[in-house]
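Researcher: Sequence recovery benchmark, item below. Answer with residues only.
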Protein backbone atom coordinates (compact mmCIF):
# COMPACT_ATOMS: atom_id res chain seq x y z
CA UNK A 1 0.00 0.00 0.00
CA UNK A 2 1.38 3.37 -0.97
CA UNK A 3 0.63 6.84 0.25
CA UNK A 4 -0.80 9.11 -2.40
CA UNK A 5 0.56 12.59 -2.94
CA UNK A 6 -2.62 14.08 -4.39
CA UNK A 7 -4.30 17.06 -2.74
CA UNK A 8 -6.26 16.03 0.34
CA UNK A 9 -10.07 16.07 0.38
CA UNK A 10 -9.85 17.78 3.76
CA UNK A 11 -7.46 20.71 3.67
CA UNK A 12 -4.51 20.13 5.96
CA UNK A 13 -5.31 16.44 6.53
CA UNK A 14 -2.36 14.31 7.64
CA UNK A 15 -0.98 11.68 5.28
CA UNK A 16 -2.32 8.73 7.28
CA UNK A 17 -5.89 9.72 6.29
CA UNK A 18 -5.25 8.83 2.66
CA UNK A 19 -6.64 5.52 1.50
CA UNK A 20 -5.54 3.44 -1.44
CA UNK A 21 -8.38 3.37 -4.04
CA UNK A 22 -8.23 -0.42 -4.25
CA UNK A 23 -9.25 -0.64 -0.56
CA UNK A 24 -12.30 1.48 -1.28
CA UNK A 25 -13.20 -0.69 -4.25
CA UNK A 26 -12.91 -3.86 -2.15
CA UNK A 27 -15.08 -2.36 0.61
CA UNK A 28 -17.67 -1.34 -1.99
CA UNK A 29 -17.73 -4.85 -3.46
CA UNK A 30 -18.10 -6.47 -0.03
CA UNK A 31 -20.95 -4.10 0.84
CA UNK A 32 -22.81 -4.85 -2.39
CA UNK A 33 -22.28 -8.59 -1.84
CA UNK A 34 -23.66 -8.43 1.71
CA UNK A 35 -26.73 -6.49 0.58
CA UNK A 36 -27.30 -8.99 -2.23
CA UNK A 37 -26.91 -11.95 0.15
CA UNK A 38 -29.49 -10.52 2.56
CA UNK A 39 -31.98 -10.03 -0.28
CA UNK A 40 -31.75 -13.62 -1.60
CA UNK A 41 -33.61 -15.48 1.19
CA UNK A 42 -36.38 -12.89 1.70
CA UNK A 43 -38.88 -14.41 -0.76
CA UNK A 44 -38.44 -17.84 0.85
CA UNK A 45 -38.88 -16.80 4.49
CA UNK A 46 -42.15 -16.71 6.39
CA UNK A 47 -42.91 -13.05 7.25
CA UNK A 48 -43.89 -14.06 10.80
CA UNK A 49 -40.63 -15.89 11.50
CA UNK A 50 -37.68 -14.62 13.50
CA UNK A 51 -35.35 -15.23 10.53
CA UNK A 52 -37.35 -12.77 8.44
CA UNK A 53 -37.12 -10.06 11.10
CA UNK A 54 -33.38 -10.61 11.57
CA UNK A 55 -32.86 -10.46 7.80
CA UNK A 56 -34.79 -7.18 7.55
CA UNK A 57 -32.83 -5.68 10.46
CA UNK A 58 -29.55 -6.77 8.84
CA UNK A 59 -30.62 -5.26 5.53
CA UNK A 60 -31.57 -1.95 7.18
CA UNK A 61 -28.29 -1.86 9.09
CA UNK A 62 -26.30 -2.54 5.91
CA UNK A 63 -28.16 0.10 3.92
CA UNK A 64 -27.83 2.73 6.66
CA UNK A 65 -24.15 2.08 7.25
CA UNK A 66 -23.48 1.90 3.52
CA UNK A 67 -25.26 5.15 2.75
CA UNK A 68 -23.51 7.03 5.55
CA UNK A 69 -19.99 5.82 4.75
CA UNK A 70 -17.41 8.39 3.66
CA UNK A 71 -16.43 6.17 0.70
CA UNK A 72 -19.21 7.62 -1.41
CA UNK A 73 -17.37 10.99 -1.34
CA UNK A 74 -14.21 9.44 -2.76
CA UNK A 75 -15.20 9.89 -6.39
CA UNK A 76 -15.95 13.61 -6.10
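Model:
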Amino acid sequence: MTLHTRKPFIKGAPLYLYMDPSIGRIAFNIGVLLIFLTLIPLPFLDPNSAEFIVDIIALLFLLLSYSSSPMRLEGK
